[in-house]
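Hi R.,

Here's the input for the 3-methyl-2-oxobutanoic acid complex you asked about:
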Amino acid sequence: MSTRIKAIDDVESLKRVTTRSLQDMKQSGIPIAMLTAYDFTMARVIDGAGVDVILVGDSASNVMAGHETTLPITLDHMVYHAQCVVRGVSRALVVVDLPFGSYQGNSRRALASAIRVMKEAGAHAVKMEGGEKIAPIVERIISAGMPVMGHLGLTPQHIYRFGTYQVRAREEEEAERLKKDAKILEEAGCFAVVLEKIPAPLAKEVSASLSIPTIGIGAGAGCDGQVLVTHDALGLTMDFNPRFVRRFEHLADRMTDAVKSYIGEVRGRSFPSESESY
Ligand code: KIV
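And here is the predicted structure with 3-methyl-2-oxobutanoic acid in place:
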Protein backbone atom coordinates (compact mmCIF):
# COMPACT_ATOMS: atom_id res chain seq x y z
CA MET A 1 0.00 0.00 0.00
CA SER A 2 1.43 3.42 -0.93
CA THR A 3 1.57 6.11 1.72
CA ARG A 4 0.71 9.79 1.35
CA ILE A 5 2.68 10.64 4.48
CA LYS A 6 6.41 10.40 4.07
CA ALA A 7 7.78 12.92 6.57
CA ILE A 8 6.79 14.73 9.76
CA ASP A 9 5.97 17.87 7.70
CA ASP A 10 3.29 15.86 5.88
CA VAL A 11 1.73 14.96 9.25
CA GLU A 12 1.87 18.52 10.55
CA SER A 13 0.19 19.88 7.42
CA LEU A 14 -2.75 17.48 7.68
CA LYS A 15 -6.04 19.35 8.03
CA ARG A 16 -7.59 16.28 9.62
CA VAL A 17 -5.95 13.18 11.00
CA THR A 18 -7.80 10.05 9.88
CA THR A 19 -7.40 6.35 10.53
CA ARG A 20 -5.67 6.23 7.13
CA SER A 21 -3.17 8.90 8.27
CA LEU A 22 -2.21 6.68 11.21
CA GLN A 23 -1.71 3.73 8.89
CA ASP A 24 0.50 5.89 6.65
CA MET A 25 2.47 7.12 9.67
CA LYS A 26 3.20 3.54 10.69
CA GLN A 27 4.36 2.71 7.18
CA SER A 28 6.67 5.71 7.14
CA GLY A 29 7.98 5.09 10.65
CA ILE A 30 6.58 8.35 12.07
CA PRO A 31 5.55 7.93 15.72
CA ILE A 32 1.92 8.71 16.57
CA ALA A 33 1.28 11.06 19.53
CA MET A 34 -1.97 10.46 21.42
CA LEU A 35 -3.25 12.10 24.63
CA THR A 36 -6.50 12.01 26.56
CA ALA A 37 -9.00 14.84 26.95
CA TYR A 38 -12.39 15.00 28.62
CA ASP A 39 -13.43 18.63 28.16
CA PHE A 40 -13.55 21.44 25.58
CA THR A 41 -10.76 23.64 26.95
CA MET A 42 -8.16 20.89 27.33
CA ALA A 43 -9.10 19.41 23.94
CA ARG A 44 -8.61 22.81 22.29
CA VAL A 45 -5.16 23.23 23.80
CA ILE A 46 -3.83 19.78 22.94
CA ASP A 47 -5.39 19.77 19.47
CA GLY A 48 -3.87 23.21 18.84
CA ALA A 49 -0.48 21.85 19.92
CA GLY A 50 -0.71 19.23 17.17
CA VAL A 51 -1.42 15.91 18.88
CA ASP A 52 -2.51 13.27 16.33
CA VAL A 53 -5.15 11.40 18.32
CA ILE A 54 -7.28 12.56 21.25
CA LEU A 55 -8.70 9.80 23.38
CA VAL A 56 -11.79 10.51 25.42
CA GLY A 57 -10.73 7.77 27.80
CA ASP A 58 -12.84 6.12 30.44
CA SER A 59 -9.97 7.29 32.67
CA ALA A 60 -12.38 10.24 32.99
CA SER A 61 -13.82 8.05 35.73
CA ASN A 62 -10.58 8.53 37.72
CA VAL A 63 -9.39 11.93 36.54
CA MET A 64 -12.69 13.82 36.22
CA ALA A 65 -14.95 12.02 38.69
CA GLY A 66 -12.43 10.87 41.32
CA HIS A 67 -13.38 7.18 41.23
CA GLU A 68 -10.79 4.57 42.09
CA THR A 69 -11.40 2.55 38.90
CA THR A 70 -12.80 3.09 35.41
CA LEU A 71 -15.79 0.84 36.09
CA PRO A 72 -18.38 3.33 37.39
CA ILE A 73 -18.41 5.71 34.41
CA THR A 74 -21.55 5.37 32.28
CA LEU A 75 -22.26 5.66 28.57
CA ASP A 76 -24.19 8.90 29.24
CA HIS A 77 -21.09 10.35 30.95
CA MET A 78 -18.84 9.27 28.08
CA VAL A 79 -21.18 10.81 25.50
CA TYR A 80 -21.15 14.08 27.46
CA HIS A 81 -17.32 14.16 27.72
CA ALA A 82 -17.02 13.26 24.03
CA GLN A 83 -19.40 16.05 23.02
CA CYS A 84 -17.30 18.58 24.96
CA VAL A 85 -14.05 17.33 23.40
CA VAL A 86 -15.33 17.18 19.82
CA ARG A 87 -16.37 20.86 20.05
CA GLY A 88 -12.75 21.75 20.85
CA VAL A 89 -11.02 19.73 18.13
CA SER A 90 -10.40 20.65 14.52
CA ARG A 91 -7.47 18.42 13.50
CA ALA A 92 -6.97 15.36 15.70
CA LEU A 93 -8.76 12.05 15.34
CA VAL A 94 -11.15 11.74 18.30
CA VAL A 95 -11.46 8.23 19.72
CA VAL A 96 -13.93 7.50 22.53
CA ASP A 97 -13.80 4.62 25.01
CA LEU A 98 -16.90 2.47 25.25
CA PRO A 99 -17.29 2.17 29.04
CA PHE A 100 -17.55 -0.99 31.11
CA GLY A 101 -20.94 -2.65 30.67
CA SER A 102 -21.82 -0.92 27.41
CA TYR A 103 -20.47 -3.57 25.02
CA GLN A 104 -19.32 -6.78 26.74
CA GLY A 105 -21.20 -9.95 25.85
CA ASN A 106 -23.93 -8.39 23.74
CA SER A 107 -23.12 -7.24 20.23
CA ARG A 108 -26.52 -5.58 19.75
CA ARG A 109 -26.00 -3.40 22.83
CA ALA A 110 -22.39 -2.76 21.77
CA LEU A 111 -23.55 -1.56 18.37
CA ALA A 112 -26.13 0.74 19.97
CA SER A 113 -23.46 2.15 22.34
CA ALA A 114 -21.03 2.83 19.50
CA ILE A 115 -23.77 4.49 17.45
CA ARG A 116 -24.61 6.79 20.36
CA VAL A 117 -20.99 7.87 20.72
CA MET A 118 -20.59 8.51 16.99
CA LYS A 119 -24.00 10.12 16.43
CA GLU A 120 -24.57 12.15 19.59
CA ALA A 121 -20.96 13.25 20.11
CA GLY A 122 -19.60 13.29 16.57
CA ALA A 123 -16.66 11.06 17.56
CA HIS A 124 -14.50 9.54 14.83
CA ALA A 125 -13.89 6.09 16.34
CA VAL A 126 -14.49 3.98 19.44
CA LYS A 127 -12.10 1.98 21.61
CA MET A 128 -12.81 -1.28 23.40
CA GLU A 129 -10.81 -3.46 25.76
CA GLY A 130 -10.27 -7.15 25.04
CA GLY A 131 -9.15 -9.67 22.43
CA GLU A 132 -10.72 -12.78 20.94
CA LYS A 133 -13.79 -12.64 23.20
CA ILE A 134 -14.88 -9.27 21.83
CA ALA A 135 -13.86 -9.94 18.20
CA PRO A 136 -17.45 -10.62 17.00
CA ILE A 137 -18.54 -7.34 18.63
CA VAL A 138 -15.66 -5.47 17.01
CA GLU A 139 -16.62 -6.93 13.61
CA ARG A 140 -20.24 -5.95 14.04
CA ILE A 141 -19.38 -2.33 14.88
CA ILE A 142 -16.89 -2.08 12.02
CA SER A 143 -19.36 -3.58 9.55
CA ALA A 144 -21.77 -0.79 10.51
CA GLY A 145 -19.10 1.69 9.39
CA MET A 146 -17.46 2.71 12.67
CA PRO A 147 -13.69 2.45 13.17
CA VAL A 148 -12.55 0.53 16.24
CA MET A 149 -9.32 0.82 18.23
CA GLY A 150 -8.43 -2.26 20.31
CA HIS A 151 -6.82 -2.30 23.77
CA LEU A 152 -4.77 -5.20 25.17
CA GLY A 153 -2.48 -5.84 28.14
CA LEU A 154 -3.40 -4.14 31.38
CA THR A 155 -6.99 -3.37 30.45
CA PRO A 156 -8.33 -1.35 33.41
CA GLN A 157 -11.92 -2.55 32.95
CA HIS A 158 -10.63 -6.03 34.01
CA ILE A 159 -8.91 -4.79 37.14
CA TYR A 160 -10.96 -6.88 39.56
CA ARG A 161 -10.12 -10.02 37.58
CA PHE A 162 -6.41 -9.11 37.46
CA GLY A 163 -6.45 -8.07 41.13
CA THR A 164 -3.37 -5.87 40.58
CA TYR A 165 -2.09 -3.06 38.37
CA GLN A 166 1.22 -4.87 37.80
CA VAL A 167 2.75 -5.42 34.34
CA ARG A 168 0.80 -7.98 32.27
CA ALA A 169 2.03 -10.76 29.97
CA ARG A 170 5.37 -11.35 31.66
CA GLU A 171 4.63 -15.08 31.57
CA GLU A 172 4.92 -17.03 28.31
CA GLU A 173 1.28 -18.17 28.29
CA GLU A 174 -0.19 -14.69 28.66
CA ALA A 175 2.32 -13.25 26.17
CA GLU A 176 1.29 -15.86 23.57
CA ARG A 177 -2.38 -15.08 24.27
CA LEU A 178 -1.72 -11.37 23.76
CA LYS A 179 0.06 -11.96 20.44
CA LYS A 180 -2.89 -14.03 19.22
CA ASP A 181 -5.39 -11.43 20.43
CA ALA A 182 -3.51 -8.67 18.62
CA LYS A 183 -3.68 -10.64 15.35
CA ILE A 184 -7.37 -11.39 15.91
CA LEU A 185 -8.13 -7.69 16.44
CA GLU A 186 -6.22 -6.82 13.28
CA GLU A 187 -8.14 -9.47 11.32
CA ALA A 188 -11.43 -8.24 12.82
CA GLY A 189 -10.65 -4.85 11.24
CA CYS A 190 -9.32 -2.67 14.09
CA PHE A 191 -7.39 0.34 12.76
CA ALA A 192 -4.99 0.42 15.75
CA VAL A 193 -4.46 -1.22 19.10
CA VAL A 194 -3.38 0.17 22.46
CA LEU A 195 -0.84 -1.97 24.34
CA GLU A 196 -0.88 -1.12 28.04
CA LYS A 197 1.76 -2.00 30.62
CA ILE A 198 3.41 -5.02 29.00
CA PRO A 199 7.14 -5.82 28.61
CA ALA A 200 8.83 -3.63 25.98
CA PRO A 201 10.27 -6.56 23.95
CA LEU A 202 6.80 -8.12 23.66
CA ALA A 203 5.25 -4.80 22.55
CA LYS A 204 8.02 -4.40 19.98
CA GLU A 205 7.41 -7.90 18.61
CA VAL A 206 3.65 -7.34 18.41
CA SER A 207 4.17 -3.97 16.70
CA ALA A 208 6.44 -5.56 14.08
CA SER A 209 3.98 -8.38 13.45
CA LEU A 210 0.95 -6.15 12.78
CA SER A 211 0.21 -3.98 9.78
CA ILE A 212 -1.94 -1.68 11.96
CA PRO A 213 -0.31 0.77 14.38
CA THR A 214 0.21 -0.04 18.05
CA ILE A 215 -0.05 2.75 20.61
CA GLY A 216 1.85 2.04 23.80
CA ILE A 217 1.37 3.13 27.40
CA GLY A 218 3.96 1.58 29.65
CA ALA A 219 4.93 -0.67 26.73
CA GLY A 220 8.29 0.79 25.73
CA ALA A 221 9.62 2.62 22.70
CA GLY A 222 9.01 -0.16 20.16
CA CYS A 223 5.35 0.77 19.64
CA ASP A 224 4.20 2.83 16.64
CA GLY A 225 2.89 5.56 18.93
CA GLN A 226 2.51 6.56 22.56
CA VAL A 227 -0.40 7.63 24.73
CA LEU A 228 -0.51 9.17 28.19
CA VAL A 229 -3.31 10.51 30.33
CA THR A 230 -2.88 14.27 29.82
CA HIS A 231 -3.39 15.04 33.50
CA ASP A 232 -0.47 12.71 34.33
CA ALA A 233 1.76 14.12 31.59
CA LEU A 234 1.13 17.69 32.70
CA GLY A 235 1.58 16.97 36.39
CA LEU A 236 -2.01 17.69 37.38
CA THR A 237 -2.42 14.30 39.06
CA MET A 238 -0.11 14.03 42.03
CA ASP A 239 -0.69 10.66 43.64
CA PHE A 240 -0.29 8.43 40.54
CA ASN A 241 3.37 7.72 39.87
CA PRO A 242 3.94 4.58 37.80
CA ARG A 243 7.31 4.28 36.07
CA PHE A 244 5.82 4.87 32.60
CA VAL A 245 4.51 8.37 33.37
CA ARG A 246 6.81 11.22 32.40
CA ARG A 247 5.80 14.63 33.80
CA PHE A 248 6.27 17.15 30.99
CA GLU A 249 5.09 19.88 33.38
CA HIS A 250 4.20 20.28 37.04
CA LEU A 251 0.92 22.13 36.59
CA ALA A 252 -0.51 21.22 40.00
CA ASP A 253 2.40 23.08 41.65
CA ARG A 254 2.09 26.04 39.29
CA MET A 255 -1.67 26.18 39.81
CA THR A 256 -1.24 26.05 43.57
CA ASP A 257 1.18 29.00 43.39
CA ALA A 258 -1.23 30.92 41.13
CA VAL A 259 -4.19 30.28 43.44
CA LYS A 260 -2.13 31.38 46.46
CA SER A 261 -1.24 34.61 44.62
CA TYR A 262 -4.92 35.19 43.90
CA ILE A 263 -5.88 34.65 47.54
CA GLY A 264 -3.09 36.98 48.68
CA GLU A 265 -4.12 39.72 46.29
CA VAL A 266 -7.81 39.46 47.22
CA ARG A 267 -6.93 39.62 50.93
CA GLY A 268 -4.50 42.50 50.35
CA ARG A 269 -7.14 44.36 48.27
CA SER A 270 -4.75 44.71 45.31
CA PHE A 271 -7.20 42.77 43.18
CA PRO A 272 -9.18 44.08 41.42
CA SER A 273 -7.32 47.23 40.44
CA GLU A 274 -8.91 50.31 38.97
CA SER A 275 -8.12 49.17 35.43
CA GLU A 276 -9.87 45.87 36.16
CA SER A 277 -12.99 47.67 37.36
CA TYR A 278 -15.86 49.46 35.56
O1 KIV B 1 -8.90 5.54 29.46
C1 KIV B 1 -7.74 5.80 29.10
O2 KIV B 1 -7.19 6.88 29.39
C2 KIV B 1 -7.02 4.80 28.35
C3 KIV B 1 -5.56 5.04 28.09
C4 KIV B 1 -4.80 4.86 29.33
C5 KIV B 1 -5.05 4.23 26.97
O3 KIV B 1 -7.56 3.82 27.97
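One thing worth noting: The mean pLDDT is 97.

Cheers,
M.
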